[in-house]
Design goal:
Layout lengths: L1 E9 L2 E4 L3 E3 L2 H10 L3 E5 L7 H10 L7
Antiparallel strand pairs: 1-2, 1-3, 1-4
Length: 66
């Protein structure tokens, strides 16, 4: 299963849309069309480096356990 990225257009502006999980581009394109979405690409990878991890650690509070 692949992850495809979409956009949605509202009042002349484009916004991030929901991800589509499909076997190939053709199925994703059909799903996008049926849901009035703009298919923009396939997600290949997400890279998280130490800079991102340090930011997350500083800005996300640890849960309080009672």
């Amino acid at each position: 299963m692949k992850v495809f990225l979409t956009e949605v257009e509202k009042e002349g502006k484009r916004y991030a849309g929901p991800n589509i999980f499909a076997e190939n581009w053709e199925f994703a394109e059909e799903a996008a069309t049926l849901n009035d979405l703009i298919l923009i690409g396939e997600l290949q990878e997400i890279v998280v480096d130490n800079t991102v991890m340090n930011y997350l650690e500083q800005h996300i509070e640890s849960p309080t356990l009672h």
